[in-house]
Design a protein that fits this description.
Layout: E1 4-9, H1 18-32, E2 36-41, H2 42-45, H3 64-74, E3 78-83, E4 85-86, E5 89-90, H4 92-99, E6 109-115, H5 122-133, E7 138-139, E8 144-146, E9 153-154, E10 157-158, H6 162-194
Length: 196
């Protein structure tokens, strides 16, 4: 059985370009063949601003929306976050979704697809790398950065160029290698955290 890659749509706003970008990447990742692929849309997860009573490290969640999100994220063996850049930073929905959980993320690899204007979301991607390190996710070096994202859109579909395709292949190759290397460490950490 192949490891599961979750492609997470980080933007929740109406009309977001992140959804077609994520749908393209989902299909591309399936054709790559290293992972079983699941698309996860934060707009459908619909988390409120973080509202748990206890620190996420405890895993004692009071709210049903957190329990549902925990179950979804725990299914993933690796993640690709598809993110916009808002005001030189990662968007709030992405940061909020990460903050809700802790052990679900530990020792799992993360790839980043960022998009925007001239900067291609690179400042948001750099900020995301700092955030995920605090929950012990491992961000791979290879990434996909899409400048002037609207120029890649055709009738609501995202159409990548050769550079985007090459970056996506390199990132998926690295995610596969890193996920394989981290598998034992993640399993041991999960057992330690669930032990009585």
């Amino acid at each position: 059985m192949s490891p599961r890659l979750q492609v997470i749509v980080g933007s929740t706003r109406p009309g977001r370009v992140g959804l077609p970008v994520s749908q393209w990447f989902e299909g591309f990742a399936r054709s790559h063949g290293a992972f079983d692929v699941e698309l996860v849309d934060l707009a459908e997860v619909a988390l409120p601003i973080f509202d748990e009573l206890e620190h996420p490290k405890t895993g004692r969640y009071a709210h049903e929306h957190t329990k549902r999100w925990s179950a979804i994220a725990a299914r993933g063996d690796a993640y690709v976050w598809v993110i916009p850049e808002y005001n030189y930073a990662v968007n709030a929905a992405t940061k909020n979704a990460i903050d809700y959980l802790n052990r679900e993320w530990a020792h799992k690899p993360l790839g980043i697809v960022s998009y925007g204007g001239v900067a291609a979301g690179t400042r948001a991607a750099q900020m995301l790398r700092q955030i995920v390190s605090a929950v012990r996710m491992v961000a791979v070096t290879d990434a996909v950065h899409i400048p002037f994202v609207q120029s890649f859109m055709d009738d609501g579909r995202f159409v990548p160029n050769d550079e985007v395709l090459q970056g996506a292949t390199l990132m998926l190759d690295e995610l596969s290698s890193v996920q394989s290397a981290l598998r034992i460490l993640h399993g041991e950490t999960a057992l330690e955290r669930t032990a009585p």
